[in-house]
Design a protein that fits this description.
Layout: E1 6-10, H1 15-26, E2 30-35, E3 46-50, H2 56-64, E4 71-74, H3 89-117, E5 120-125, H4 137-157, E6 162-169, H5 198-208, E7 220-223
Parallel strand pairs: 1-2, 1-4, 2-3, 4-5, 5-6, 6-7
Helix pairs in contact: 1-5, 2-3, 3-4
């Protein structure tokens, strides 16, 4: 039988998004995965929606068919690096479209329906880099924008039973870590001595989507492996 809980997860074909989709499926959710790549998940409760999330109109069209979902998790992302004097405008535009514009287009379709029925959960995947890091200005700007977006949405729908949060991991062990586009930017290990695992992020997101997290909204929660301890 179809699950009564339906989650929309972007970036579901790999990395954090895939880990999130698998965790939710294991928890009994029906999951619609939005990704430009073909699905890598075979599960009766999983529905693959192949769409280029950097294409605004296509993203809106896909989202319109998903209105009524109980949760929205935006994990799709790319990382492009560059120092001042060598910033690449198309790279910046791509990250803005994929990280921020896609989130607002999907959220604009899904959140009003959540608010109308008095329940909903939204989690946007941010990054500790949003606090600023040399060579990451374009990426950091898009991830910082997600925090402002989430807090503003949270303020709009808090009285209607909808929560909106950001989860911001430190460097995570995914294919993005090995992306040739960041060959000159090796990730720094946090104090725990290893990269964050996608399943650790999925566990926190799963909690934020649960009834037990109803009082948590408008927060930027870091999974940093101790990286935020020095002040």
């Amino acid at each position: 039988m179809p699950s009564e809980r339906h989650a929309v997860v972007t970036g579901s074909s790999s990395g954090i998004g895939r880990a999130l989709a698998l965790a939710l499926l294991a928890d009994g959710w029906q999951v619609s995965g939005l990704d430009v790549s073909p699905s890598t998940i075979d599960h009766p409760q999983f529905d693959s929606v192949q769409v280029d999330l950097a294409d605004g109109p296509a993203t809106e069209t896909a989202a319109q068919h998903l209105a009524g979902a109980h949760a929205f998790v935006h994990a799709a992302g790319v990382l492009r690096v560059g120092n001042l004097g060598r910033l690449n405008a198309p790279d910046g535009e791509l990250m803005w479209r994929l990280h921020v514009d896609a989130a607002q287009r999907i959220g604009n379709q899904l959140l009003p329906a959540m608010a109308a029925v008095g329940h909903g959960r939204v989690v946007l995947l941010g990054s500790r880099v949003a606090q600023g890091k040399a060579g990451r200005s374009q990426y950091a700007a898009t991830k910082a924008a997600l925090v402002g977006l989430a807090r503003s949405w949270a303020a709009e729908v808090v009285a209607q039973g909808v929560t909106v949060n950001v989860v911001s991991p430190a460097a995570t062990q995914t294919a993005m870590t090995d992306d040739p586009a960041r060959h000159a930017a090796v990730p720094v290990l946090p104090p725990i001595g290893r990269l964050i695992r996608p399943d650790e992020i999925a566990a926190l997101v799963s909690f934020l989507l649960s009834p037990a997290a109803a009082a948590i909204t408008g927060q930027d929660i870091q999974i940093c492996g101790g990286a935020s301890l020095p002040r």
